[in-house]
UniProtKB/TrEMBL annotation:
Keywords linked to the UniProt accession: Membrane, Transmembrane, Transmembrane helix
One matching Pfam family: YibE_F
UniProt source species: Maridesulfovibrio salexigens (strain ATCC 14822 / DSM 2638 / NCIMB 8403 / VKM B-1763)
UniProt superkingdom: Bacteria
Name of the protein: YibE/F family protein
Entry-linked InterPro entries: YibE_F (IPR012507)
Annotated transmembrane regions: 6-23, 121-139, 145-165, 172-192, 198-217, 224-242, 248-275, 296-320, 340-368
Length: 376
């Protein structure tokens, strides 16, 4: 019976969090007063669109039937405003399922605006596939990982981001958020044990050192927060007082935190396994084993960061090659310098996490055992 208590507890927690998120977004948007509802496009009018190469500007008039809410079945005509930015704009066609922003008055849709293609259904299907595969392979550990995944999203969405928008210190908020995330994620997966303590301390120690490097080299490289995606749009939406440079620094550390947790847990769990298989191992031998494991893990993890960041800016790199940009100019380009900074600081943090975790594990895991031996 005891085996099933923990999974049932986590299932209830996950259902509760999902239900809370759904409940909070059930009403109209608090800023515009409009409901966001699914609709099926029945017709479009593109006469007001102006084509400019691959970009289009103007308004597309979309006729659609609403599919949910108290106005289900009603037909509305909404404007799809295009701004000439292909990465943001969308063109709708008859038969598409889209998201419409609708103002409702006395049970009737009195105003509508086409927003986006409705992708949530397939996103949930993909998430469901992830959950099924995770649970089949990892079973109860996968369930705990799923709980930590949802909880981490909730902490970032409901604590970290509102704190930043409220004018809080990005550095302080990052430290607090990463502490919460590290404790929640590692404890959910590993439970309450000395391995958990080692992994948490190792992760936080490495990330704090990486934060120091971020602040030091960020000043030397004259980094600018405006290199972050949507930074300009955020400023012009009314948040003029935000410290975008510190927010950029926060994103650097936050981006490296997941890999840091992986390395810390890998090293701590491996050293604990070695200690279980060889109880008479000395502290120095155990630390040496931890260093060996850490070297192997960091060897691939740093490359993983490089590939992840390069993939996000693949089109920019292609443009540089197309234009024949010199390597020197590319290295000094603002966006490239920001990504190099992000990659290298994150990599340094990862490299630091491994030996710190190994040393902590040597004293926490093996130390208690040696004390016990001495007392006997």
């Amino acid at each position: 019976m005891k085996r099933f208590i923990s999974p049932i507890f986590f299932v209830l927690m996950i259902v509760g969090i999902i239900g809370l998120l759904k409940y909070e977004h059930a009403g109209p948007d608090p800023y515009s007063g409009m409901h966001e509802l699914r609709a099926t496009v029945t017709g479009v009018d593109n006469s007001a669109l102006v084509e400019m190469g691959t970009a289009r500007i103007g308004g597309q008039h979309v006729t659609a039937i609403l599919m949910e809410g108290e106005v289900k079945g009603q037909t509305v005509i909404g404007v799809n405003q295009l701004t000439g930015q292909p990465e943001m704009d969308e063109i709708f066609h008859p038969g598409d399922t889209i998201l419409m922003a609708v103002r409702i008055n006395d049970g009737k849709a009195v105003e509508a605006r086409a927003v986006n293609q409705y992708r949530q259904g397939w996103e949930l299907a993909l998430f469901g596939l992830f959950v099924v595969i995770l649970l089949i392979y990892a079973r109860s550990i996968g369930l705990k990982a799923l709980f930590s995944f949802i909880t981490s999203f909730y902490i970032i969405w409901k604590f970290f981001i509102p704190g930043l928008l409220g004018g809080g210190s990005p550095i302080l908020l990052t430290v607090v958020t990463l502490t919460l995330l590290t404790v929640v994620i590692i404890t959910c997966v590993a439970g309450f044990s000395r391995v958990t303590v080692v992994a948490i301390l190792g992760t936080l120690s490495g990330l704090l050192l990486a934060l120091g490097l971020t602040l030091f080299f960020g000043a030397k490289l004259k980094m600018a927060g405006m290199t972050a995606p949507f930074a300009t749009m955020l400023i012009f939406s009314g948040h003029y007082t935000l410290d975008l440079l510190d927010i950029f620094y926060a994103s650097v550390i936050l981006g490296a935190s997941g890999a840091a947790m992986d390395i810390a847990m890998d090293v701590a769990a491996s050293m604990n396994e070695v200690l279980d298989k060889k109880p008479d191992i000395t502290r120095n031998e155990l630390i040496k084993s931890g260093f060996n494991v850490g070297r192997m893990v960091t060897g691939t993890m740093t490359t993983t960061l490089l590939l992840a960041y390069s993939g996000g800016y693949l089109t920019m790199l292609m443009l540089f090659v197309t234009k024949g940009t010199s390597f020197t100019r590319m290295l000094n380009f603002k966006l490239v310098a920001a990504e190099i900074f992000r990659t290298l600081v994150g990599s340094v943090g990862l490299v630091l996490v491994a030996p710190i975790t190994a040393i902590l594990a040597g004293f926490i895991l093996c130390g208690f055992k040696e004390i016990k031996k001495a007392s006997n």
